[in-house]
Design a protein that fits this description.
CATH topology of chain C: MetI-like fold
CATH architecture of chain C: Orthogonal Bundle
Chains: A alpha/beta (330), B alpha/beta (332), C mainly alpha (278)
Distance between the termini of chain B: 37 Å
Number of helices of chain C: 10
Helix content of chain C: over 70%
Number of helices of chain B: 10
Distance between the termini of chain C: 27 Å
Structural class of chain B: alpha/beta
Order of helices and strands of chain B: EEEHEEHEHHHEHEHEEHHEEH
Largest interface: A-B, 36 and 37 residues
Largest sheet of chain B: 8 strands, mixed
Oligomer: heterotrimer
Number of strands of chain C: 0
Shape of chain C: elongated
Number of strands of chain B: 12
Low-confidence stretches of chain B: 324-332
Mean pLDDT of chain B: 86
CATH superfamily of chain C: MetI-like
Strand content of chain B: 15-25%
Helix content of chain B: 25-40%
CATH class of chain C: Mainly Alpha
Chain lengths: 330, 332, 278
């Protein structure tokens, strides 16, 4: 499928650390289409952060790609040089914690303009020197996007320091920074977990509107299905480094087919009056179980689950599913 | 009703606002500004609010780590307020605290077992055998085995850290436990087992919980009563059923509407703005700048809590009690 | 074990450790290299100012003494002085830093202002002044150095204590009602130990250097003690013809100070990789 903005295919990645070789990602596989908001859901230890860093072309220290591809519009993101060209220009990034993303001693305007200076804007004249007029153009663009993220008085806001903004406003400014270069994809790493509930909903609605207005695709990483329901068109669920199920948001939330997705949904307070959890613990990436990594905690596990990793199958309703017990569904 | 286990009367904890010779004057922060609570023995009271609303300060003040500026704290009917931290901790040893991040609450250089022993030592249990017995009992109660005593904090998972935190606190045999965001940072699948454990322990050891959280879904499932805080004051308090099914205060309604549900919430007004900082507290009702139904007099007078039904009090003269919960209205 | 492995991979640090270990062995058992330990102050006037040779590896001085023996014996004096000075500074500086960092208010301010005053006084000049008052000798040099070195420990411990004081486990201990003494001794002290050890290691090198300067200026060790600074001071008169007289004690200082600094830097990296200096 060449019309994918971002495609991660069969990605297997291990990190060599002091304690040994950790098999962090094991056949991660999903794609983001132009203009869609794709959710990436998984609990802690599922390899989300490693995956994001790899997509940004900044894999963790000691990482080794064992197999697979990561491509942005057909361009190889596993090539550091190519990734550097794309990152910050065609892929925007919204970090998790707006409280730590800024340097407290510079104004927010100075910090974002500095980033724009190095990344440049797509409509910058070719080979132009960075001078007053170019800076003024960058500033004008920044003010335009700040207005789009509903920062009051954007001209004045540029000259203020990070601590003069609330967490929600800082997150808006970071979103503006990511949008300024007119990217076609934005990577959002749990952008609302550090925020309060009332602010979270504001930011989610803002992101949804911006994605539509600017026709930008988004890879939205979260652990909260409530957030997924608000913003994502499709979702890919990861468990312990493996992609287990990918489908449209209603498919996953209302009719999960993979046992892990099903059990995770059952934990959601809206889905059960009783307090339920998933027994057992996520296996360590140093000693992953053979085959399906969820098998040790799965009530439906059989011998077939541990003998080989279930491949990702296309089901008849259009989702991808990695479970041997759902093969008949596919 | 029986006598409350813990009662606060018009409790106020303010910081700063004083001028001293050597340091710069700090602005007055009214972190807790007139809170009156009654907690009955055996109940679970939820305290909900966004960051900066003063819920952690209440916890610290009740424990005695912060000295209240004004107001009274009654434990079992006895006045235990107005004391310095060291003395306050002694008088209020019936109240204990489980830290928000029990992993970080363990000294990284100490084995878990040593930390558990130390906690009991601090409370004067000098007999080693007795300490060991109590620790093993608690470990068993939280579902861990003896092997965990030899581990270091970083060798524990998030859920195990919470369990150790509970064991540490409960080994002191408190009557009331303040749980500060006990599920924050936990995955949904782990959260459930921890919540269940807390309910079991409450039944076994006859505990009273003050449950501080910003996660409404957790509060709804666990608490008998719930108090909603905004900028140092309680704006609504009542039975959990009542507050969640028929929120009366506009802020409570905004909170409930803002919590993401599994269906997309396209309709409904999202509350605008951020919670203002406690140093720049608006005059009158602190919520009026964000309130969709604010009237002129909301800017002048601070509304007091008033009963709107037999199990619900609201600090808003324009409150509409008995209204259907907005999310449910939308879902149906 | 992991720490040890990491340390062994750091070549300069291992080199530093090697130098320090050799110096300590020589200080404890100079007999390993010196034939007659008791006779290092006695010379043979006929063997005066001989250049290095197989018999006299570092040559001989103006009184005909074996410079090699005296350099080896100087290790003991250098290490004794630096160990005592650093321990004395730690005994004073660490508790003050702990108290200042844990308490807030006037106690803390008072301690830190006094520390600032001591830090503002030029160390060497204060040391010379104290040595003058107390009279010449290794003891006054040591007191003088200790008086000028403790503020560094106070500063280090103060900064670390403040950091740890703000951490959640200290807050939790307070919540459980632990006493201040208990928190400071059992919880904060072990957590500040690492930076203090780093500071002490670098301090050893610093004190050896300063003690040598004091010896050189004539306010430290008294002749005929085999003190490196003193030796350089005496040998200086014979430069450049009899170069070996001042050179070998100088090299001894260089290597030992370098050894402590390399070791200190290595330990620092081990404790906190973010502090790696370029």
């Amino acid at each position: 499928m060449s019309d994918d903005i971002l495609s991660v295919r069969d990605l297997k990645l291990s990190v060599k650390g002091d304690a040994g070789l950790a098999q962090i990602l094991d056949h991660v596989d999903f794609a983001v289409k132009p203009g869609e908001v794709m959710g990436l859901v998984g609990e802690s230890g599922c390899g989300k952060s490693t995956l994001i860093r790899t997509i940004l072309g900044l894999p963790p220290k000691g990482a080794r790609i064992d197999s697979g591809t990561v491509a942005f519009r057909g361009r190889n993101l596993l090539d550091p040089k190519e990734a550097q060209q794309i990152r910050g220009r065609e892929i925007g990034f919204i970090p998790q914690d707006p409280f730590q993303a800024f340097n407290p001693v510079f104004t927010v305007g100075a910090q974002i303009l500095e980033i724009l200076r190095w990344s440049g804007l797509p409509d910058d004249p070719k080979g132009a020197r960075y001078d007053k007029s170019l800076r003024a153009r960058h500033k004008a663009r920044l003010i335009e996007v700040l207005r789009a993220v509903q920062i009051p008085d954007p001209e004045e806001a540029l000259d203020r320091y990070p601590h003069q903004f609330s967490g929600g406003q800082r997150q808006r400014i970071l979103i503006a920074g990511a949008l300024a270069t007119r990217p076609s994809l934005i990577l959002a790493d749990e952008p609302t977990t550090a925020l309060d509930v009332t602010t979270q909903m504001q930011i989610l609605r803002l992101l949804r509107e911006l994605a539509a207005d600017y026709n930008v695709a988004m890879l939205f990483v979260t652990h909260d299905f409530g957030v997924v329901a608000q913003i994502c068109d499709r979702v890919s669920v990861m468990y312990a480094g493996q992609t287990v199920e990918t489908g449209t948001t209603p498919q996953i939330i209302d009719g999960p087919r993979h046992p892990y997705t099903g059990m995770l949904m059952a934990c959601h307070p809206e889905r059960s009056t009783e307090i339920t959890g998933i027994p057992g613990q996520v296996s360590s990436p140093l000693t992953p179980p053979p085959g399906c990594r969820f098998a040790p905690r799965c009530p439906r596990a059989t011998e077939a689950c541990t003998s080989a990793r279930p491949g990702l199958l296309n089901s008849r309703d259009g989702r991808q599913l990695a479970c041997v017990h759902e093969e008949e569904f596919a | 009703m029986s006598r409350p286990l813990l009662e606060t009367v018009d409790l106020k904890t303010h910081y700063g606002g004083t001028r001293s010779l050597l340091s710069k004057p700090k602005p007055l922060v009214r972190a807790v500004d007139g809170v009156s609570l009654k907690i009955q023995p055996g109940e679970v009271l939820g305290l909900v609010g966004e960051s900066g609303c003063g819920k952690s300060t209440i916890a610290k003040t009740l424990l005695g780590l912060e000295r209240e500026t004004e107001g009274a704290i009654l434990l079992d009917g006895f006045d235990v307020g107005g004391r310095d931290p060291a003395e306050a901790r002694k008088v209020r040893s019936d109240i204990q605290y489980v830290h928000q991040d029990p992993g970080a609450a363990l000294d990284p250089w100490w084995r878990v077992g040593d930390t558990l022993h130390e906690t009991l030592k601090i409370h004067g249990v000098s007999d080693r055998a007795e300490r060991q017995a109590r620790i093993l009992e608690m470990l068993n109660a939280v579902g861990l085995n003896e092997g965990f005593l030899r581990r270091y904090p970083h060798e524990l998972s998030g859920g195990q850290q919470r369990r150790i935190g509970l064991a540490r606190t409960l080994s002191l045999r408190p009557r009331m436990v303040i749980l500060d965001e006990p599920t924050s940072g936990l995955d949904l699948s782990v959260q459930a087992t921890v919540l269940k454990l807390m309910l079991d322990l409450r039944a076994t050891y006859d505990l009273t919980y003050l449950f501080i959280s910003h996660d409404l879904s957790v509060v709804e499932r666990l608490c008998d009563r719930v108090a909603i805080m905004y900028l140092g004051r309680i704006v609504e308090i009542g039975s959990a059923d009542q507050v969640f099914s028929a929120p009366a205060h506009p802020y409570t309604r905004a909170l409930l509407e803002s919590a993401p549900t599994l269906t997309r919430q396209d309709s409904g007004q999202v509350i605008q703005g951020d919670p203002p900082s406690p140093t720049r507290r608006p005059e009158g009702c602190a919520f009026h700048p964000r309130c969709p139904m604010a009237q002129a007099d909301c800017r002048q007078s601070v509304p007091q809590l008033a009963e709107v039904s037999d199990s619900q009090s609201v600090a808003c003269p324009y409150a509409m009690p008995g209204q259907v919960r907005p999310a449910e209205a939308f879902a149906s | 074990m992991l720490m040890l492995k990491k340390f062994l991979r750091d070549v300069p640090a291992v080199l530093g450790l090697l130098i320090v270990v050799i110096a300590v062995i020589l200080a404890l058992f100079p007999g390993l290299l010196v034939d007659n330990v008791d006779r290092v102050n006695r010379g043979d006037i006929l063997q005066r100012l001989k250049p290095p040779s197989p018999d006299l590896p570092f040559g001989s001085d103006d009184l005909g003494r074996n410079i090699f023996d005296r350099v080896v014996m100087g290790t003991r004096s250098a290490l004794t002085i630096s160990t005592l000075v650093v321990s004395l500074s730690m005994i004073v500086g660490v508790p003050l830093g702990l108290i200042a960092g844990y308490r807030s208010g006037w106690v803390s301010s008072a301690i830190m202002r006094v520390t600032d005053v001591f830090l503002a006084v030029p160390q060497l000049i204060l040391a010379i002044a104290i040595a003058q008052i107390l009279g010449r000798g290794a003891t006054s040099a040591m007191i003088a150095l200790a008086v000028t070195y403790w503020p560094f420990f106070t500063r280090t411990v103060y900064a670390e204590t403040q950091k740890i004081r703000a951490s959640l486990f200290v807050e939790a201990l307070e919540g459980y009602g632990a006493s201040t003494t208990r928190i400071m001794l059992f919880h904060i002290l072990p957590n500040v130990a690492a930076p203090v050890i780093v500071r002490a290691t670098v301090g050893m090198g610093f004190v050896i250097l300063t003690a040598a300067v004091l010896g050189f200026l004539g306010v430290g060790a008294v002749p005929p003690a085999p003190d490196w600074g003193l030796q350089i001071s005496e040998g200086r008169k014979y430069l450049p013809v009899h170069w070996w007289y001042a050179t070998f004690p100088g090299l001894a200082i260089l290597f030992l100070v370098l050894g402590f600094n390399l070791l200190g830097d290595g330990l620092r990296d081990l404790v906190d990789p973010r502090l790696r200096r370029s």
